[in-house]
From TrEMBL:
It comes from Teichococcus deserti. InterPro entries: Sialidase (IPR011040), Sialidase_sf (IPR036278). Keywords: Hydrolase. This is Glycosyl hydrolase. GO terms for molecular function: hydrolase activity. Residues 51-376 form the Sialidase domain. It holds the Pfam family BNR_2. SUPFAM superfamilies: Sialidases.
Amino acid sequence: MISADPSGKLLLGEAGHVLPAGDDPARRECYLPPATVQSHAANLTPLPDGSLGLVWFGGTQEGVPDISAYFSRLEGDRWSAPVRLSDDPTRSEQNPLLFPAPNGELWLIWTAQISGNQDTAIVRRRISTDNGRSWGPIGTLFGERPGGGTFMRQPVTVLSNGDWLLPIWICASTPGRKWVGDEDTSAVMISSDQGRSWQEVAVPGSLGCVHMNILDLQDGTLAAFYRSRWADNVYVSRSSDLGRSWSAPEPTELPNNNSSIQVARLANGHLAMVFNESSAADATERRLSLYDDIEDDSDDGKVVGAIDTSRRSTFWGVPRAPMTLAISEDGGRSWPHRRNLETGDGYCMTNNSREGLNREFSYPSITQTADGRLHIAYTVYRQAIKYVSVDEAWVKETAA
């Protein structure tokens, strides 16, 4: 049960201390210690030393240049105090992820954009050789792209042949118009030399399909799941040649609200997805763009155009709730087992955290540790990151 004071500010309790949920002893949870007014876009990763790493972005508000990447570690039942790992005063630094490379290095990868213009995004990198206790210098992984920006959100997949697959999407620029997402497409960056060089492989027919999340099904095929800019369904595509080519994304049975999802392959071969079980069909309002509530002095004369109802266009403002955990036992072809982690109205017609106006549950991350536990983190009201741990059986239980 989410609680907030009359101003809309979350009441976080004993933040950082993982405890059983009072009404659900099979579930353990807590809020991460907050470092900033806004916290968003968590990514969880088991680290080689046995701890659990979590990164997210924080600052005043997404798109503002005080947004930076933050890192915390779970050891025992305590999350450590957040550490800021990026600090570019000219760019909004977003969507961090951790990648434990096979050689023992821990990579931090994140995006950096000018204001609310995702078509200016580049991708940066830092490397740690001691599981995130210290970090090397900041470098650019993917620099400026002619005609658009490069964005990423989902983990790197290491294949049996040693290739690294980092899914990206391309935020295309439109002359005279500010970025809203209508022209976004997906691709995969493939490295066969431990990240020294990369080859870009486009996903055909991927217009509007972003946040590509690649899974090795360990049957000779890869599956990739996508967020939809059209706010209709989660999409899926597949590869049978180690990611060198992909089928065009097709809708699954799961709805999507133009917000992030994440999927993990479990030790038993099942897939677990966290997502918002909502779509444009549930919307009563619509935003012009993701960044329509921040002032922007970098427009260069560009404007946000009116919503074009004559074709499919990016749908912003669909409620970001409930937060749902689903299980597939057939490689993502069906999702019969679903249970809500959080419910609410999911109001997201603003990204404002200072005034407590946003009430979304969003941008989930999921991973499994060797003990079989599922570890999940997600945004609550754009004010804090919440951590939850359950097991697969919890999803399949019938609600009382």
